[in-house]
């Protein structure tokens, strides 16, 4: 489609190139309404997260927290509709639904929608939205022309080069959210049911077929813990606590035995 725009501008020397490119972009967005909507909701998630962390607008920061979660929930719901367009009321459909990453984060948004606001909660949503929005933004930039918005292209390239590190960081946030939730409970800022619901989310993330980083991080944490415990310098008290923690996690789910 970008070749069409370039051809049109070459045949017409009256300076209609930018207008043609703009029409090409709008035409592409209208032809791909779902992808465009996903792009917009992801950008909205990014903006609301930034405004929650840096309250430069006079609105209540908590409202931006909820808007970020709602827009991320809308993104997940729309992505689920893409992946599973035909709803069926049977166990096969339910199993297919539960293995989708979008369903995991739809649950995540519901869990924390009315919870005590923390930046840590929004970080995974922010980073996922940023990564996926960059992909569609590259498509838009290519339609605008090979030399359009070079600075934005360079930023996207640098971000994509760090994609693996970003996904690993998201997985670590997902894991360490559990002790953060326990701290919220002890401080009276979270319900006693929250860790049990979040535990289900965490098991879904561990079993994810598309994103192996949660399993990978659990395995690395387990190996690092074993290395620490096997050192002669490790105090017996610390060694005992580590073993008990590993045994408890292994009892909850076989995550500590991942390889």
TrEMBL record:
<feature type="transmembrane region" description="Helical">
    <location>
        <begin position="119"/>
        <end position="145"/>
    </location>
</feature>
<dbReference type="InterPro" id="IPR005344">
    <property type="entry name" value="TMEM33/Pom33"/>
</dbReference>
<keyword id="KW-1133">Transmembrane helix</keyword>
<dbReference type="GO" id="GO:0016020">
    <property type="term" value="C:membrane"/>
</dbReference>
<protein>
    <submittedName>
        <fullName>Transmembrane protein 33-like</fullName>
    </submittedName>
</protein>
<dbReference type="GO" id="GO:0071786">
    <property type="term" value="P:endoplasmic reticulum tubular network organization"/>
</dbReference>
<keyword id="KW-0472">Membrane</keyword>
<feature type="transmembrane region" description="Helical">
    <location>
        <begin position="166"/>
        <end position="186"/>
    </location>
</feature>
<dbReference type="Pfam" id="PF03661">
    <property type="entry name" value="TMEM33_Pom33"/>
</dbReference>
<comment type="similarity">
    <text>Belongs to the PER33/POM33 family.</text>
</comment>
<dbReference type="GO" id="GO:0061024">
    <property type="term" value="P:membrane organization"/>
</dbReference>
<dbReference type="GO" id="GO:0005783">
    <property type="term" value="C:endoplasmic reticulum"/>
</dbReference>
<feature type="transmembrane region" description="Helical">
    <location>
        <begin position="39"/>
        <end position="58"/>
    </location>
</feature>
<keyword id="KW-0812">Transmembrane</keyword>
<feature type="region of interest" description="Disordered">
    <location>
        <begin position="1"/>
        <end position="24"/>
    </location>
</feature>
<dbReference type="InterPro" id="IPR051645">
    <property type="entry name" value="PER33/POM33_regulator"/>
</dbReference>
